[in-house]
Design goal:
The structure holds two protein chains of two kinds. By secondary structure, chain A is mostly helical. Chain A is built from nine helices and no strands. Chain B has two domains: 243 residues, P-loop containing nucleotide triphosphate hydrolases (Rossmann fold, 3-Layer(aba) Sandwich), CATH 3.40.50; 100 residues, 2-Layer Sandwich (Alpha-Beta Plaits). In chain B, strands 6-7-8-3-9-10 form a six-stranded mixed beta sheet, with helices on both faces. A four-stranded antiparallel beta sheet of chain B has the order 2-1-4-5, with helices on one face. Chain B has a four-stranded antiparallel beta sheet with strand order 12-13-11-14. Classes of the chains: A mainly alpha, B alpha/beta. Chains A and B meet through α6 and α7 of A and α2, β6 and α3 of B. The structure holds adenosine-5'-diphosphate (ADP) and magnesium ion. The site of magnesium ion has 3 residues of chain B, from α1.
Chain lengths: 226, 351
């Protein structure tokens, strides 16, 4: 592969990192609280509220059942409103974030639901407010699960970002399509695929390690060292 | 210190309403260790959870330290809960926090900063004998140690009352003893009022001053542990006491015992001594006066709340009339006699 090509590959890689990084962070910031609300308002939980729970549940389901490629196109007006353009890396962040929020919310909900109800009860018996229960019991106890949820989200966003690239978002997907496919440079396609695979591997193993480290339910001898 | 007035709780379930508590009224004195015993499903947990309103009673009142808890909601209720500690069968410690941090949690929830809470938590761990385990996570502690952390956590907000829901039921007998001793110690040292829920008579006998026997959501019997234990009136209580005492019956006797007198054999009697008569030589008197033999199969003297309580099991060997008169004589001494069954007379008796 020529040095010029390598340069393009590096640029594309950085664009992917930016797209995935920003959309992961945003979707975590918005999706995790949504997951908390979904759990807390569910029947028998700390802030049971059937209406809120059902409405949010329906919105989240709608978001999750819309194919990403359709979402990408459908929200172009919204994307323009937010970033001023519908083309480029910044523009790609918007649909990626929108797609990932309900994804994060559902995964977070599942992780938070795993927390032993006895712990919530103990906190209530100590006079905890619902917010204290969320911050001091639910989130810390579900942390390994939440980290796993974010890891899955990042991996998914890496895949989605390649799709976003194909509609002008830049990044590795864009490079693969334009050079590898349209100009028929199979070595570029191969390089793109290898970089994507490596990226996913790194993200997954870092996430797994972190989740295990945070899991104090395991004895220290079972945790990864250093 | 705690007063329950005509407490009822009905759960609405898919199969219709379930009445779990049917009008419970009782008073727990300050600094008392009050036991509630009952079989599984009797409503014990529901009862204790109604005291701190983890479960809101359907009707009736809960009054703790002069304050009507059932009238409180929101912030006022949470405030009141700081003065009612609770420990649980499965400890309910946060796995993500060390022993020290778990105790500190109670103080953080009461509004202290993380640092102040940790500083205040250390002496509590010391009180329960876990000063050297402060940095351990629950996964690295034994069941007994976890319950000690639970106790320290419950005491952190300096409550007037400690509720214990089957606090020793997940522990082995030896650890149970040590946790009960700790609770007793704290009760004496801090003057804490303790409400203890259990399905084991052994636990009640060990540390409670008074006991209520709960059956089908109603109080079947209530009174000082010694009285309830040595002279049970309700059938459930009798079964609890029997379970406890019979656990100590020798297996070979149980195997030989038959409940049908028409099969013949010598009656096996349980003589229960309590109070002053525990010290009089009744057995010797009976043997002399009625010319029968009492073959002692087992004898134990227990001390409940410091008062002697003797249990003697004998095989009565002699004429039917003599044995009947002997039983009457013992009963006249204000002792209890119960015919457990009959055993086939062994060769020695026949001869
Ligand atoms: N939230 C609930 N909904 C419906 N039924 C309940 C609920 N909690 C307890 N019960 C029922 O109440 C009865 C008493 O339960 P509990 O107080 O836990 O008894 P115990 O602690 O004496 O074993 C049981 O039959 C149980 O099924
Ligand atoms: Mg129970």
């Amino acid at each position: 592969m020529s040095p010029a090509m390598l340069g393009l590959l590096l640029d594309a890689f950085l664009e992917t990192l930016v797209m995935v990084g920003i959309s992961s962070a945003l979707s975590a910031v918005l999706g995790l609280p949504l997951g908390v609300v979904l759990v807390a308002t569910s029947p028998g939980h700390i802030r049971e509220n059937a209406i809120v729970n059902r409405v949010l549940g329906a919105v989240v389901n709608a978001g999750r059942s819309t194919p990403f490629i359709i979402l990408l196109v459908a929200i172009i007006p919204f994307t323009r409103l937010v970033v001023g353009t519908s083309i480029g890396t910044a523009a790609a962040v918007v649909p990626l974030t929108i797609a990932a929020i309900p994804f994060v919310a559902r995964l977070a909900e599942a992780a938070l639901r795993e927390v032993d109800p006895g712990l919530i009860e103990a906190a209530q018996s100590m006079g905890a407010t619902p917010l204290q229960i969320v911050l001091k019991v639910l989130v810390p106890e579900a942390l390994p699960g939440l980290v796993a949820a974010i890891t899955i989200t990042v991996v998914t966003l890496i895949g989605y970002s390649a799709m976003a690239g194909a509609v002008g978002g830049g990044g590795l997907g864009d490079l693969g399509i334009r050079y590898g496919y349209q100009r028929f440079l199979p070595e570029v396609m191969l390089a793109v695929v290898i970089v994507l695979i490596a990226l996913v591997q790194v993200v997954q193993s870092v996430g797994d390690r972190l989740a295990r480290r945070l899991n104090k339910r395991l004895l220290r001898s079972q945790q990864p060292s250093a | 210190m705690i007063e329950l007035r005509d407490l009822t709780k009905t759960f609405q379930t898919e199969g219709g309403p379930v009445r779990v508590l049917k009008g419970i009224s009782l008073t727990v004195q300050k600094s008392e260790v009050f036991g509630v015993i009952g079989r599984s499903g009797a409503g014990k947990s529901t009862l204790v959870r109604c005291i701190n309103l983890l479960e809101r009673p359907t009707s009736g009142q809960v009054i703790v330290a002069g304050q009507e808890i059932t009238a409180l909601r929101g912030r006022a209720l949470r405030q009141a809960r700081h003065s009612i500690g609770m420990i649980f069968q499965h400890f309910n410690l946060l796995s993500s926090r060390t022993a020290l941090e778990n105790v500190a949690l109670a103080l953080e929830l009461a509004g202290r900063s993380r640092r102040a809470a940790r500083a205040a938590a250390a002496p509590l761990l010391e009180l329960v004998g876990l000063a050297d385990k402060r940095g351990r996570y629950p996964a690295e502690l034994s069941g007994g140690e976890k319950q000690r952390v639970g106790i320290a956590r419950a005491l952190a907000s300096e409550p007037a009352v400690l509720l214990c829901d089957e606090a020793t039921s997940a522990l082995d007998p030896e650890t149970t003893q040590s946790i009960l001793a700790l609770l007793r110690d704290i009760n004496r040292k801090l003057g804490l009022t303790v409400v203890l829920i259990t399905h084991e008579m052994q636990v009640i006998k060990e540390i409670c001053d008074r006991v209520a026997v709960l059956e089908h959501g109603e109080i079947a019997e209530m009174g000082p542990v010694f009285d309830v234990f040595t002279a049970p009136t309700a059938e459930v209580t009798r079964r609890f006491v029997r379970d406890l005492v019979d656990r100590e019956l020798p297996a070979n006797l149980v195997a030989r015992l038959n409940a049908r007198p028409e099969l013949g054999g010598n009656p096996v009697l349980r003589i229960v001594f309590r109070g002053p008569s525990a010290h009089s030589p009744v057995v010797a008197e009976v043997v002399r006066q009625f010319g029968i033999l009492l073959n002692i199969l087992q004898a134990t003297v227990d001390y409940i709340q410091g008062a002697p309580y003797g249990n003697v099991i004998v095989e009565a060997i002699g004429g039917e009339q003599d044995v009947a008169r002997a039983i009457d004589f013992i009963r006249g001494k204000d002792l209890k006699v119960e015919v457990l069954g009959h055993v086939a007379g062994d060769a020695r008796a026949v001869a």
